[in-house]
Structure formats: C-alpha cells, structure tokens
Design brief:
The complex is a heterodimer. By secondary structure, chain A is α+β, with helices and mostly antiparallel strands. Chain A has 20 helices and 10 strands. In chain A, the strands form 3 sheets. Chain A has a 5-stranded mixed sheet with strand order 2-1-3-10-6, with helices on both faces. A 3-stranded antiparallel sheet of chain A has the order 8-7-9. Chain A is globular, with a radius of gyration of 23 Å. Chain B contains 14 helices and no strands. The chains are: A alpha+beta, B mainly alpha.
C-alpha cells in the first residue's frame, strides 16, 4: 500500500512493540478534555501514521473508574490512556516511562516532539514523577523541560500534556467600557475603572457592580461542597502567599496557615458583602458559569468555556486572576500516557507525540482545545480571527505559566473533600476561617493516616 | 380474624399441611438419583449465583481485613484495623445518623403519601388508569437526571420553583441548597416525588386483590368509610405495606445520585450520607480494603434491620398472630 510505504516506522525490527498495528485504542475523556478536538484529527492521524485510532470516550467519573479498572485488571486493550492529574500518583506504576522513547530518534519520526516547548509548570506538574516516591514534585518547575535533566534527578516522564485548564478571570468588557460606569467608579473610588489585578481591586470592582435591583452582581464564587470550592480556596491561598498545593511533599498541612485564614476570610467577605449572587454557598462551576453567561454578574472566575447569552448583548474579556502577596491560579492538565501492558508501545508513543505536537494542538484550538505548548499560544494569539478568542488564549497561557497544581496524594479526593467542607462552613459563616481550617486539618490528617501516609506530628 | 378470613384477605402465607411433602421429595427415588438430577439441573444457576454473589461477598469480606487498594501495591493483612477506623471515625458515625434519618423520613412520608394515592386510584376506571400512568412517570426517570433538573429548578436566581413560589405569595429567592433545613427538604422532596409512585403501585395492587366481602359486611353493619378503612381494609393491606416498607427501606439506604448531584453532602456535612463516603473511598481513592469494611458494616446493619422491619410492619400478617 502506498500509504503504508510512506508512513514512518516501516521496516523496523520484528519485535512486538515495533510491529505496526492495524489499530491503536485510546481511552479518552468526553467534554472534560475536549474529545471533539481530538476526534476531528482522526482522519489525518490515519493518513500520517497509517494506523486507525479508535477512541473510546467516557464522562469524568465513569472514565476514572474505567481507567483504574483497566489498570487493575492488567488489561492491554487500551494502548493510550488519558490521565487526569489527581489520578496520576496512584497510576504511575502502571504507566510506561517515556524518557527512553524521548531519547530515541527513530521513535520521534512522526512529529516534532520538542519537550522544551511544553509550558514548564504544566509539563512538570502533569507528567514528571518519581516512581519510587509519587508524592514528590520536580524540584525546579520553571526551567525548560529536558528529559536528561529529569532522569538525572531520579524522575521520569509518564505522559505528554494535551488539555491544560487553569482558573481565569472573565469580565464583561461592555460594562467596563461603559462611560457611565467609568465616571461613577472614578467618582466613588478616585481611580479609573480598570480590570482588577489585585485582590483588593477585585473586591472593590465587584462591590461597584453589585446592583441587586438591576439583577447584577459583582462576581461569582463556587463555595458549594465539591472540588470547585477547594480549587477556589487553593487559588486564594496561593494569592495570599501560601502553598497552593494545600499539602506539602513532606505532608505538611500547609492550608492550615495564616495565609489560609486570610484566604478564607477574603472568601467569606465576598459572600457576606453580597457581591455574589444568592445561592453561591451551594454553587459549583456550572452555576458560576451560567450566572455569568446569563448576565447576572460582571465578573467570574472559572475553568469553563464561557459564552454570553445573546440577550445580554455584551462582550467577554479575560484576565489572570488577581494577586495578593503571591499568585497561583489552580490548574490541572490531562496527559496522554501509554499503558505499560500495551503490545504497541512504540506506536502508541508515536501517536501521542503526533497528537500533542504543536501543529496538531494548534489545529485542535478550532475546537477549543486548551493547549499545553508555549508555541501554540503564541501562534493562536496571532492567528485567531476573533479578538475574544485571542484574548482568552493569551490569558490562559499566562495563567498556566504561573499556575499551581495539586498535592500528589493517592487519596487526594478525600483530602479535597475535607477542605471543601471547611471552605463551605467558613463561606456560609457557620465557622470562623480558623476553626474551619483546624477542623479540616484534623480530618485531612485522619484520611492521610488511614491511607498509609505518615503525617508529621501524628 | 380467623383462618377463613385471612385466606379471604388474600394473605399469601404458604402453609404446608401435616403429611404433605414438597414436590421434590415426592418425586425423589430411593438411592438419591432424583436428588442428584435436581442438583445437576440446578447447577448452572448455582454456579452463576456463586460467581456473581457469593464469591464477590467473600472477596469483600477478605478485602475488609486488608489494607488493599484497587491497583495492588503493598496490600497486607491488617486485622480489624479497617473496622476500627470506620467505627472510630466521628464523620462516619455522623454519616450513619444522617443516612438513618433520611431513610426513616423518606420511607414514612412515601408510605403515607403512597397510601393516600393508592386508595382513590385502586378503583379501576379509565380516568384512574390515566392518572396511574401519569403518576408512574417520576418513577421512570433516571435518578441522576431528575437530580440535575431539580438542581436547576431550585436555583435561587433563575429556578422555576422560586418563581412560582413568588407568584403565589410564598417566600421567593430561597437559597434551597445553602441552608441545611432547606437542603434536606430538597433531597427528601426529590426522593418522595420519585419513589412515592412505587409505594402507591404496590399498595394499589394490594387493594385491588382484597376481597370485598368483609367491606360489604361492614357496610351492612353500619360502618362508615373511615371505620371500614381503619378496621377492615388497612389490616388486610398490612402485608403489602410490609413489602413496600421493606423494599423502600433497602432502596433508600442505597440512595446516592440525588445527594451527589444536589448537595454533595453539604452544606457542610449536613447531608453527608454514608454512600457518599463509600463512593469517595472506594471509587475515587480506590482504597478497597477501607471501603469494604464500611460496606460490610452497612450490610450487617441492613441484614439486622430487615427482619425487624418485617416483624414490626408485618405484625398481624400471620393469621396465628392476628
């Protein structure tokens, strides 16, 4: 076949890993990691590699259970598996380390792998682990990724990042540009109405736009019990100079700190001052997005793609979340990893290098992929025909560059839940921030201990 | 009520008269060949039963004594540690209390409302058939879907429920899911909406199978509708009430979707039922040993509870106790 003759990897040795398969099976997320963007490139994938890419998609909870059960059963069915960052500490032993593949020129023949092009923080947080100590973060997360430096420090690469999400601020450009608002703000606060860059400015602007009689509120919070409130809190914790990962690599409970109290106090003030819509202490990212999309708020902070209802007749602008004494919007990235039991590891590797290459990521932005490479952000900012799209990608790239991920714990979900309960209790005024964090520290210590971690001071 | 009446009342307690033998015993032949044949015929079903229920149950028990996670690793025998962790965790005890409170409230409300629906709808007529079809619709909706829709309906900013409450002069802008009391009303309301038709269906079937003779006799004796219902119909309906209560109790203990979607256990931990915790430990952290211990304790609780329920609710179903 002409197609096969033109495709890479032909004529190699006959061992199983090298033999070209007819199909590669990939287990992927649905909307959470933008399956549509990847699926749109399947025909080009076939053309380039001469292999059919069969993609099975699942929504988040079902996907997590499917991924874990596949690995638990030792199945080799899926060659490529998408992995979310909270799952990775438990899965590292089941994923194929990629450093030797990255170093082999013969296996990097379908796309320019260029690991140094990945956003450093995203790459290290998502894909770089120590197999003997999955809790450890790579010590220098701001240098350009270099596989030999990574292995030199005892770490390895366990996937290639594909969909990077970060908390960003979205605001109503039309309201900010309105001369009446500008004049009123100037008169009230003695400074021009600008997009807030600090926590204090953010609260001031939110207060200014809060006009319940006009069905308008300043901003949103996601203070319901769930991952969303933990993520809100960890971003504020980082903005107040704390460790946004919540728990240190040495299992120090960093969220229970003066910075944590400041973060929760600010959060509570946003709610008690009435600058967020009613029901915010039960809201998730869905309610926050729909509140902003329906024109109920002037600003929001979210991970969702946002689109104003046509009836609102407004425009959206984006900004990096405001800073305090520090900055660190919560981020989390999906990576494409190779099943260590796969019979087609080398072709699976070629597949993920092609799918995560700059050219393909840029093409996927037409379907709203959130890229993981520096060069793709540069390209999409300059090439996007819609200024709002260019603005969004510019801000997303900036946010990912300074973002903060999660603690690497096999039972992170339980830890996150304990903190979410504390955030909710403080947000609703049921407990003081300090009391809520003390309670969370006690519960986090318990769930870590029962999971086999040795927490200092226990 | 004598034995004759209880038979008329449709009570289905099977009784084997002295001297009668079950069919298998009648057909058995000397030497046990018939029993062997019966075992051979039952073998496929028994193997399926063994593989699908007994083996997982035994494995669950085995896991509960180990510090296992789904992906293997350093699993080891830990004795009763998982059980000690489960029992000593105040959060776990709180969740158990919340779960029991929910089950009691849901089953009581659904039984009362189910009875109130079943009595008028038991009479077979065209209009009742239409009403029954409509009544069954909530029962047919997937719980997670109904929970997602309810969450939208309860939104204090654009939900329909607040809107219509405002129209009829009730307090609007209620932050349903932000306050423990209203959050409880929401999850209970959803459960009642979804499962009352199930109870009503069982009770309707019961009412339609009841003999009319005692009712007619009571009417001839001058009993009013309430007296007839209280002293004739309700006692005869007791076995069906027992079935409905037991089934709903077991189902209610298994409730998960509505809490996960509507409240996530919040505000705080005010609606944190046991199943949410089991889900997090078993299906998000995959600490199967710890989750197995909680599940075994839960199973023991249910196993003890069902006979008690049958005894309490089903009192009077045995003609000899009547």
């Amino acid at each position: 076949m002409v197609l096969t003759a033109c495709t890479p990897g032909t004529g190699n040795s006959s061992n199983t890993a090298n033999a070209k398969p007819a199909q590669l099976h990939m287990l992927y997320a649905t909307a959470e990691a933008d399956a549509a963007a990847v699926q749109a490139l399947v025909p080009q994938f076939k053309q380039k590699l001469g292999v059919d890419l069969v993609i099975d998609t699942q929504p988040y909870d079902a996907l997590q259970q499917k991924v874990f059960s596949e690995f638990a059963s030792g199945s080799s069915f899926y060659d490529i598996v998408i992995v979310d960052t909270p799952w990775a500490p438990a899965l590292v032993g089941k994923l194929e380390p990629l450093s030797k593949y990255l170093a082999d020129p013969k296996l990097n023949d379908v796309a320019k792998t260029d690991v140094a092009d990945f956003i450093p923080k995203v790459f290290y947080d998502t894909a770089v682990y120590r197999a003997d100590s999955p809790i450890a973060h790579y010590p220098d997360s701001t240098t350009k990724p270099d596989p030999s430096a990574i292995t030199g420090k005892g770490f390895d690469v366990y996937g290639l990042p594909i969909q990077a999400n970060a908390l960003v601020t979205a605001y109503r450009k039309d309201l900010f540009a309105d001369p009446k608002n500008q004049a009123a703000f100037q008169q009230k606060y003695g400074r021009p109405l600008t997009v807030p860059t600090t926590l204090d400015e953010y609260q001031q602007v939110a207060t200014f736009f809060t006009r319940p009689q006009e069905k308008l509120y300043g901003t949103t919070v996601m203070a319901g019990v769930g991952d969303w409130s933990t993520d809100d809190f960890k971003s504020l914790l980082a903005a107040n100079g704390g460790n946004g990962q919540l728990v240190g690599d040495n299992l120090s409970l960093d969220f229970n700190s003066p910075a944590g109290v400041q973060a929760l106090t600010y959060y509570r003030n946003q709610i008690s001052s009435g600058t967020v819509p009613p029901g915010s202490t039960a809201a998730s990212w869905d309610e926050a997005a729909s509140s902003f999309d329906s024109g109920l708020t002037a600003m929001t902070q979210n991970y969702h793609a946002l689109a104003l209802d046509p009836k609102v007749k407004g425009q959206i602008g984006y900004a990096v979340v405001p800073k305090g004494t520090g900055v660190g919007p919560h981020f989390g990235t999906w990576m494409l990893s190779i099943n260590s039991k796969s019979q087609n590891k080398e072709w699976a590797y070629r597949a993920i290098t092609w799918l995560t290459a700059a050219e393909q990521q840029l093409a996927m932005t037409k379907n709203q992929l959130h890229p993981s490479r520096v060069s793709v952000y540069t390209s999409v900012e300059s090439q996007a025909s819609d200024p709002a799209v260019a603005d969004f990608y510019k801000v997303l790239g900036q946010s990912l560059a300074v973002g903060v991920g999660r603690a690497r714990l096999t039972n992170y979900t339980e830890v996150s839940h304990a903190i979410a309960v504390a955030v909710n209790n403080a947000a609703s005024g049921k407990q003081t921030p300090q009391a809520a964090l003390d309670g969370a520290a006690q519960e986090v210590r318990r769930v870590l201990t029962t999971a086999g971690y040795k927490v200092p001071g226990s | 009520m004598d034995t004759h009446d209880s038979q008329h009342a449709g009570i289905s307690t099977a009784r084997v008269e002295a001297g009668m033998r079950p069919a298998a015993a009648v057909t058995s032949r000397p030497g046990g060949g018939g029993q062997l044949g019966a075992w051979v015929l039952m073998a496929p079903a028994l193997v399926v039963l063994l593989v699908m229920t007994v083996v997982p149950a035994v494995y669950l028990l085995y896991s509960s004594f180990r510090s296992e996670s789904l992906l293997g690793g350093s699993g080891s025998f830990v004795g009763l540690q998982n059980y000690r962790d489960a029992v000593s965790d105040p959060g776990q005890r709180h969740a158990l209390g919340i779960t029991v409170a929910f089950v009691v409230a849901a089953v009581v409300v659904e039984t009362v409302l189910g009875l109130l629906l079943a009595v008028p709808l038991a009479a077979q007529s065209r209009s009742n058939n239409i009403a029954v079809t409509v009544m069954l619709l909530p029962f047919a909706v997937t719980p997670v879907v109904s929970a997602l829709i309810t969450r939208e309906l309860l939104n204090p900013n654009y939900g329909w429920i607040d809107y219509f409450m405002g129209l009829v002069g009730l307090p609007s802008h209620v932050e349903w899911l932000s306050n423990p009391t209203t959050a409880w009303i929401a999850v209970l309301g959803l459960d009642v909406w979804q499962w009352t038709p199930f109870v009503a269906l069982i009770l309707m079937a019961g009412l339609q199978s009841l003999p009319q003779d005692p009712v007619e006799a009571a009417a001839l004796d001058g009993a009013g509708p309430w007296q007839t219902f209280r002293y004739i119909t309700l006692p005869m309906l007791t076995p069906f009430l027992a079935i409905a209560v037991v089934l709903r109790t077991i189902q209610a203990f298994k409730t998960f979707d509505s809490f996960k979607v509507l409240t996530g256990g919040g505000p705080g931990t005010s609606t944190e039922i046991l199943n949410l915790n089991i889900y997090r430990v078993a299906l998000q952290s995959f600490r199967t040993g710890a989750a197995a211990a909680v599940a075994i304790l839960f199973l023991i609780l249910l196993t003890l509870l069902v006979p008690v329920l049958l005894r309490v609710v089903g009192r009077g179903t045995d003609p000899e106790e009547a």
